[in-house]
Amino acid sequence: MLVHEAAQAPRVSRPGWWRRPDLRLGAMGRRRASIPTARPDRIVVSHTVRTSMAEYTLVLNGSMEIGRRVLGDALRDAVAELRAVDLTFSPARPGSLVSRLRRDEIAVDSYPPLADLVDRCAGMRAATDGWFDAWAVPGGFDPAGLLGGWAVERAAARLRAAGVSDYAVVKGADLTVRGNAPHGGPWRVAVHHPTDGRQAPLVLEMTAGALGTSGVAGRRGHVVDPHTGQPADQLVAATVVGPDLAAADAYATALFAAGPTGLDWFPTADGCRALLAARR
User: Fold this and answer.
1) How many CA atoms lie within 13 A of 197 on its CB side?
2) Is the model more confident about 32 or about 135?
3) How far is Cα of residue 160 from the mean position of the Cα atoms in its chain?
4) Are β-strands 55-63 and 42-50 bridged in parallel, bridged antiparallel, or unpaired?
5) Rounded Cα–Cα distance for residues 157 and 116 (Å)
6) Burial of 121 (0-12, 13-18, 19+ CB in 10 A)
7) How far is Cα 221 from Cα 218, in angstroms, rounded to an integer?
8) What's the first-to-final CA gap in the chain, in angstroms?
9) CA 250 to CA 271: how far, in whole Å?
10) What is the pLDDT of residues 24-67, one digit of tens each?
């Protein structure tokens, strides 16, 4: 395993009984850890929702002054955003804007959020020297390597707009967090090795930021080298941390496609860092 760490990265430690993780990511930790008992002055609400793109788990905690009703309303608003992104943009839905764009039925600028999604994909293609390329797939434009993280960030923005400052939104082996966990300290995130359950996980302590992983789905060939069209096979997983999950997801996909040479990109100008790149 190759591990890159640098200044300003989340604090990394090895787990112990005094550092029980709040959330677990990776092949050995697909089920998230039980949310710790909240402090007496905190309220916790959580919910898991599945769309055609992914399964998402949202965990919110707030003060008694905020109240359970406000947290519940914010949770419903964020879930509605995730469902709306799925209905509007999922490539798996024939009537989505992405599917219609692939069929040349609409223009990119016909809907501002679609233009934003396309711009994000174009920006990541440039930032990764073409290793993330939403256009280098059969059938045309497919933003799947970035879309799930983009959806999470949109849902997180709805939470912040509702006044929620302490939350985690988890998508598979990806997440974004803000503020503190229910116990009052930073969110403790265990990142498990994708194939070797004997290795102790890395534990990150995070109060803001995102973590994106590519390769833990267990399907060989699901990421291709956009330059050759052949399946990427140098790594079993790549994990990137940064301030934004859409970018972290895209960088992780690009790193997985490029292999160890992709580590030369990090740290990036937009604050992303390679946490690990596990070789086959």
Assistant:
1) 4
2) 135
3) 17
4) antiparallel
5) 15
6) buried
7) 9
8) 9
9) 13
10) 887 554 555 556 667 888 899 999 999 999 999 999 998 888 88
Question: Comparing C-alpha atoms, which of 212, 233, 199, 170 is closest to residue 30?
Answer: 170
How many angstroms separate the CA atoms of 175 and 152, rounded? 8
Tokens standing for residue 49: 């929702």
* Distance in angstroms (rounded) separating the CA atoms of residues 212 and 152: 11
Distance CA 144, CA 253 (A): 10
- Which amino acid is present at 129? D
- What would the pLDDT profile of 215-235 be if each residue is shown by its tens digit? 865 455 568 888 888 888 888
Alpha helices in the chain (DSSP H): 68-89, 97-102, 112-127, 144-161, 245-258
Q: So what's the pLDDT on residue 236?
A: 85
**Is residue 137 within 8 Å of residue 130, measured between CB atoms?**
no
Phi, psi of 87 (to 5 degrees): -65, -35
Say how many CA atoms lie within 13 Å of 244 toward its Cβ: 16
Residue 166's pLDDT band (boundaries 50, 70, 90)?
very high
Which token pair is 114? 């679609």
Cβ count near 119 (within 10 Å): 11
pLDDT of residue 212: 95
Q: Do residues 204 and 233 lie in contact, with contact meaning Cβ atoms separated by under 8 Å?
A: no
Rounded Cα distance, 11 and 205, in Å: 5
Residue 237 has a CB neighbour count (10 Å cut-off) of: 26
